[in-house]
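Q: Hi! First time asking for a complex rather than a single chain. Here are the components, and I think there are two in total. Is that enough to go on?
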Amino acid sequence: MATVAEQWVLVEMVQALYEAPAYHLILEGILILWIIRLLFSKTYKLQERSDLTVKEKEELIEEWQPEPLVPPVSKDHPALNYNIVSGPPSHNIVVNGKECINFASFNFLGLLDNPRLKAAALASLKKCGVGTCGPRGFYGTFDVHLDLEDRLAKFMKTEEAIIYSYGFATIASAIPAYSKRGDIVFVDKAACFAIQKGLQASRSDIKLFNHNDMDDLQRLLKEQEIEDQKNPRKARVTRRFIVVEGLYMNTGTICPLPELVKLKYRYKARIFLEESLSFGVLGEHGRGVTEHFGIDIDDIDLISANMENSLASIGGFCCGRSFVIDHQRLSGQGYCFSASLPPLLAAAAIEALNIMEENPGIFAVLKEKCKRIHKALQGISGLKVVGESISPAFHLQLEESTGCRERDVKLLQEIVTQCMDRGIALTLARYLEKEEKYLPPPSLVQP
Amino acid sequence: MRTEPGGCCCRRPVRANDCVANGEVRNGYVRSSAATAAAAASQIHHVTQNGGLYKRPFNEGFEETPMLVAVLTYVGYGVLTLFGYLRDFLRHWRIEKCHHATEREEQKDFVSLYQDFENFYTRNLYMRIRDNWNRPICSVPGARVDIMERQSHDYNWSFKYTGNVIKDVINMGSYNYLGFARNTGPCQEAAAKVLEEYGVGVCSTRQEIGNLDKHEELEKLVASFLGVEAAMTYGMGFATNSMNIPALVSKGCLILSDELNHASLVLGARLSGATIRVFKHNNMQSLEKLLKDAIVYGQPRTRRPWKKILILVEGIYSMEGSIVRLPEVIALKKKYKAYLYLDEAHSIGALGPTGRGVVDYFGLDPEDVDIMMGTFTKSFGASGGYIGGKKELIDYLRTHSHSAVYATSPSPPVVEQIVTSMKCIMGQDGTTLGKECIQQLAENVRYFRRRLKNMGFIIYGNEDSPVVPLMLYMPAKIGAFGREMLKRNIGVVVVGFPATPIIESRARFCLSAAHTKEMLDTALKEIDEVGDLLHLKYSRHRSVPLLDRPFDETTYEETED
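A: Yes, that's all I need. Here is the structure of the assembled complex.
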């Protein structure tokens, strides 16, 4: 069979060659010649590599002048000269030599100068020294850290908690651990700077919705659903997250959590709740905004808070189900690559938790005081109070802006200075003007 | 400026220690044959006579991986991967019990939170030897430490604490270079006093009401310690990098960063929005080529000139134990008008005759480095970070750094610990304790490295670096080494993928001034035993000085966000 086929092919070929029309043969011939030419011609050089001579390159190097490393800062930049506080930053504070009542620290429960906290920290200092000399993975895990994580998990009634050594790094490391390139995050426009940095590090798609506006969020979610239906295969691997704060730092308002949970189940997005200001403030026992609204804590995928406000310590924590939290132990950048929290700060936080658990009455007292101050400040001419009545941190904004942000800031700074002369310490809300996505209007913060 | 008895402000001639160092180092460098010795020695001389930039020999070596070992390592990982697939299969079909946590029932139809493959390494390789990490301790992390014993009955999926404490384990894993991790002594007493007075927390940011007088005092002290005009301190070392690099560079600038830079530097560079190009580790030709190309060709596509070029390097690289070639980097920086950001997380306090870091070690001028950054966690026994430089730089950072505006200031007792330990190192507290610690550390480093090399292990890094990586290579040996050393009462740190390249897993020793010679001898004896038991003595004494590593003319990697 094979030989017959071979013979057939050869004979046929020769015959075809004789019988082919002339133009056909000529075209084939030209094609073959062209291929041979291409094979033997020189390789094509990229334009850039051959243009500049060595001398020209050296001239370019000589000529190039970089910008100065930092632009000069004018001497009267409002943030250049810090207020110097001598002595402990407790309720009576000495700022720049003047004694004032402290309305500027986030010391909500007044635990900053509590003797029990100091005693616990001192005991830990005597046992373990100050620093931990290593990250959690390499002999930096102390029994105090494990205790604190247990206690926080029990307090918040979740399965597990994880501690970070710095409040800012907590949410900024937690978000990129879960949300990667290609995932979608729906975040409130008034989210704080740490959340913005976490989102930037995660490289996900960010969709902003108007502050506390559930209709706007629903609109965005619906649009996303329509997109998903167009491309179901991509939708199956795109994770969706909603990031909100319990009590917003920039506006002093509380997020509408029940509606958010409904939206979560309807559109299948996970909720990350940032409770820095609401932990230890809202709720009957201080468990935060979930207790305030009476929502089951398992409905929230991740709660992140920092211990620098109510707990009067330093650091931050995340709590939630083990399924979610355990992942951060290997992929949370601020956890794996950074030294752990000094044990004396952890011991102080445990003692603060003890105090919170022993006297649940302090939260009601705090709410009362907040309501009173809120009411008392309502009538001041020229300033309006922005924030919920039970929020311990709220903003005082100018009723009518002068039109220029700098002048507003100067005016508010004047108010602050005059208040300090009279013995009340307030502070101007600080923002990095060029970095924030949605700059809130200038205001005074009053925690 | 620093007040040093009998020395000028900036340039510090390193003659005193240098002669001793020269003699010991060269004698201690073992060679197998005279020929290679002559060749290698001449190559090292070539490096030191490189335009007279180096005042002392720069002995850094990375011995090549023996071929057989590399092959066996790959085989080992192959076997583990196969078994990993088998176990996953069994778990999927419920033949094997599934130990790890699962999603809630109500959320099972959500898009899954983790990709299965992402966790393959964690589930199947990391889990097997997980007991070597996260070991909890319950005493001060000094030269000896108490480790809490824990057991696992389900192959490391969960741990139970037996309640026993393994006492007095020799600690070769904590970053305690000068031995300031103590719970007694002047530092602790001063910190206790400040704790009583100021409390623990601060509850405010630097720009609002969190700037205590203690912080101002600390910053002045740090500036005088480093020999710069001004300094600024932050609450967390990691955050110092990730929050200040974006304040200094932005889109339109170029960052040239070393291959093996720390995660915080990489994160800071990414968040800034600048273009990042990576040069080969400690390789000056690679850096020079990138600089030349950057200035000549400008920004990609638009060809506009770059606004600024920033070089990111570290003083000591903690996974390799190598020291940056600072004199050459500074020469390049001056020639091409770039800016230098030096991260001295591990080298401050640990290098140099007066403990002022890698600038002091090479005898250079601190004003040549534009931005000196470091952390207080390692040599000062506290926590936090700092940045030092010219006054304009610090003024700019005080107004524009993310940390000053949004993050809390450092805690007062921690600040006091730094102040006391820094004064001790500088000799300002009236004792010579600081100087003794520095000398003790240098001696310990030389002794330890020499002995390990003599035993036949492959040790990476520079002769003077207190970080000593000992190569293990094979995945099974990672777990075995960690466990065997703990049985013999020595706590070590073992590192594998992804912190190191996949076949180059290692054990890393961090030496401390608190280690006495007896402790080092005990440790060395045990390491010798374990080395024989696990066949870890791979070295064939064919160390290749770094300059010989072939530099291939490949184009750079460019990462843009």
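A: Chain A touches chain B through 117 residues (CB under 8 Å). Let me know if you'd like any chain examined more closely.
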